[in-house]
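Narrative summary of target 7.
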Amino acid sequence: LEIGAARSFLGRFLFSGDIGPGGREFAMDPEGPEGVDHLVVESTYGDVERGSAPTREARRKALAAEMLAAHAAGGPLLIPSFAVERTQELIVDLLELMESGEGPRGPIFLDSPLGIRASEVFLQHGRIENGEHPFERLKASPWLRFTESVNESRAIERVRGWHVIIASSGMCDAGRVRHHLKRLLWRQEATVLLTGYQAIGTLGRLLAEGRTAVRIQGEDLHVAARIRSIDVYSGHADATGLHAWIKARRPNGSIFLVHGEPENREGLRRRLIAAGTEASRIIEPAMDAIYALSPEGLAVEEPSTPRIEPRAAARLDWHNQRSEFLARLNESLDQAVDDAAREALLAKLSG
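Modeled conformation, tokenized:
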């Protein structure tokens, strides 16, 4: 990066994006540059050791068990999923399990325009092993159906019998998956399978934590569906993987730790310091702070009045707190012995 009339050289910047666990099945692991000056790196699992990545067999065994349980429950299986790579892994695994008889057969609806586009890219450019393209089966499978238009998406509501819906977003905070959640969460026979990291404050995190009521698009919903989670499709490296990736880049300037909750950023910071990185080089950026880089070093200008408290992003905001309060209130009212008890409870809360 060069600025100013004198074109002062400030250094080479590298932004990590999401660092995967390595050994990607359908795409080659990217090669990162070495010897960068400043590094901005994710820290999602910065303080978590997850061990070696699960094998293909272990991953599909876990998915088959969830498919069988969802089928036995009698309702559809909804999988909120990130559109790129995780969706494609899930599609291939679901198809293989159906074709082998290890999982129950039924339509698989990919209800994500971005996921459909990404699948087409994987189909054209996916990794080929032993002369076999893992996405070739997408062309001819009788089970897979792309629902690109809004009308096609809404038509899924009319499907009867067991089926699978894959929809974005992976944390349930946007996209078509919210439409499906609104119509399925109250049904005891339905299953929602979470397959990725769920950040604090997201709808996915609330479901993973076992909330009995949530709020979607202004509507309060009772959660009766089976909420399940498996971690075998994670798209993030763990603490050891993150440390190894940073070390391989050989940064000689500042290391900015982002995209992680406070305990994971701090955990990764401790690991880097323990391995010999100077503490002054490791930055946990604050909202609205200005980090001025120059040939002489790093200067930080903190905001006089932060818009958000330093750790506020790691707890529920008032919208979610309100939803949680209302859910508990409704539960207490339902459990009250009679109307007099309910009126007494409301009077007490009214002050």
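The first helix runs from residue 56 to 73.
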